[in-house]
């Protein structure tokens, strides 16, 4: 047995040495082949075994993307970029061929565009209302969630986008292609910012091969892709030219999804009043065409969303849930938590705004930290809300960004399947991982100082 064991060990050792001596570009290509294989089987694994199979495969793909990002920095940039973009296009073309697996939000986008094209305010009627009977069809309406009870939740800039895209084609595929166009803007901005920060442009692989944007944009087609594109475009304008113009663009992004708002703190200079006035003016102008319904322009947001997402009851707010597990539920604890969370976020925003380091790298890192803090305090329920973090995995490459952007895939759950992972467990892994990643970053930052202090003793 010993000679056989020795032979096997020798073979494995030789294989390990051959892999480590392989050129970085070849190793990168090898990772790409594995990612391609994982992506090819994911839709079928989901159909056969449900969301847990999807989560396992996509998280594995996310971990491989970390290795690919490190490998891409060692490979020849020109050749590596051809490989990076080539595989990214192939992956997106493939998942685009499947109907959305985990979300039907995109059907509402198409419907809202159709309603506006008919000259009707999308905030006036819910989709199944008799007033919209002439717009019904068998391809879009049956797939809309809460069609018989909820008006649209999406803000004005998202509505403008839906209207424009559906004038090209009223289909899910057309909408997803338009959102992939938004992704092209995001990728361009990532590469421009990387160059300005003197970091390898091949780091764009952290976004292009990342499973979160792959599945949540190319497959599910979430409008968050537009929000992310506007955020990065606004950051580029603000950090390289005009802060006010950049603020105007970022204000537009908040009218796609409001949770982009913390980004504004990264480009504001206290106590300059011009930027807040610009933001207010942009928001007011965008809402103006829809004011015929009065406060109804806030849509489903004020008519059920906060209840549905467990925010009013506090059930799905992770930190508050942990507090209740230890100390029990108390009257008005949600209001107290929201006030404290708002105060913490405001103080952190002011700290970021008052930072004396105006370099692009520092600003981007501060904005990343602010967004992660906002997600920790809010703890949203769906993975696509975390799409805004994915570009920062490329721009910053920090452990917290990777943990959150990959960990968000744990929220890709469907209640229709037998084995259901409780949301509090998924969130505990996700946000507990974020806290550990922050602790690790602090430890690594302080460790050299500790060693230096000991040497000087």
TrEMBL record:
Q: What is the organism of origin for this protein?
A: Bradyrhizobium zhanjiangense
Keywords linked to the UniProt accession:
Membrane, Transmembrane, Transmembrane helix
Membrane-crossing ranges are 25-46, 52-68, 80-98, 177-194, 214-237, 243-265, 277-298, 334-353, 360-378, 384-412, 424-443
* Record protein name field: DUF2029 domain-containing protein
